[in-house]
Design a protein that fits this description.
2 helices; 5 strands; single chain; five-stranded antiparallel beta sheet; alpha+beta
Length: about 150
């Protein structure tokens, strides 16, 4: 199936708003709480994995999560939902990386996804001893998710 110009423009607008798609997974029964919904902690873990992946690329090395701010749970996620995690670089400091992370869920029988949680994640680049270290000079250029594929 060919991608139309409209679909490409819609995708570009989504990525500008949400950030780069970093993880896509399926919510499974083992990830549920006693009420049968997906644990909020599981969603946060997926978001931390995505943010850590992006932070490591930017820093070209180890990073540690130092803060998660403004967590907003929008709606529950259900078993079988496709969960997509987007990461958007907000700010680079000397050693810190701040990102907006969003999780979107699409029920198996639906065509569109909805935002289910969002938060701001802050990482610090660390050295082998766990001390903060400066980001590389070209840190923003290390972000492979912003590069478009060559056709």
């Amino acid at each position: 199936m060919e991608t139309t110009i409209f679909q490409a423009e819609e995708l570009a607008a989504q990525l500008k708003e949400r950030g780069s798609l970093v993880i896509r997974t399926i919510a499974m029964p083992s990830d549920t709480n006693p009420s049968g919904d997906i644990f909020g902690g599981w969603l946060l873990a997926q978001m931390d994995l995505a943010a850590g992946n992006m932070a490591g690329q930017i820093a070209r090395g180890r990073c540690a999560t130092v803060a998660i701010e403004g967590i907003q749970f929008v709606r529950p996620v259900h078993v079988g939902d496709e969960v997509t995690i987007y990461a958007k670089l907000v700010k680079l400091g000397r050693s810190s990386i701040t990102m907006d992370i969003q999780a979107w869920a699409r029920p198996r029988d639906a065509a569109h996804s909805e935002n289910v949680i969002k938060a701001k994640f802050i990482f610090v680049a660390i050295d082998e001893d766990g001390n903060s270290r400066a980001l590389p000079e070209n840190a923003q250029e290390n972000l492979v998710y912003t590069r478009l594929p060559k056709s």
